[in-house]
Design goal:
With about 110 residues, the chain is of the alpha+beta class. Helix content is about 30%, strand content about 40%. It has four helices and five strands. The chain has a five-stranded antiparallel β-sheet. Pfam families: MaoC_dehydratas. This is MaoC like domain-containing protein.
């Protein structure tokens, strides 16, 4: 599944989460930190991975989750979310084109209501 990561979405996340670190919102601050553009929040990426999965699996809910971040996800990039079921868990890889892995993680799901 592909998702375009927009500056507007990152601004909304920053306002909601109260994580207003400059590298997420300010191009000059991101450049000073060595990035070409602003950077998406790690927790935004993790939450988006969960949300996209649950959209396709509405009868499931997530019971545990872990994610490791490998590379920054620059704003105005298309992120690719890939899911695989293995040993009863869902493995997720978040990447961008050319196979650069941004994050990887695992979560457990349960069928039905809480």
């Amino acid at each position: 599944m592909k998702k375009h990561i927009t500056a507007e979405a990152i601004q909304q996340y920053a306002a909601t989460s109260n994580d207003k670190a400059a590298i997420h919102l300010n191009v000059e601050a991101a450049a000073k930190a060595g990035y070409k553009r602003t950077v998406a929040h790690g927790m935004y990426i993790m939450g988006l991975a969960q949300s996209l999965y649950l959209t396709d699996h509405p009868t499931q809910w997530i019971t545990t989750y872990s994610m490791k971040f490998h590379n920054p996800l620059l704003v105005d990039t298309v992120a690719i979310f890939e899911y695989e079921v293995c040993d009863g868990n869902i493995h997720v890889i978040v990447a961008i084109e050319f196979s650069e892995v941004i994050a990887s993680g695992t979560f457990s799901v349960k069928e039905g209501s809480k």
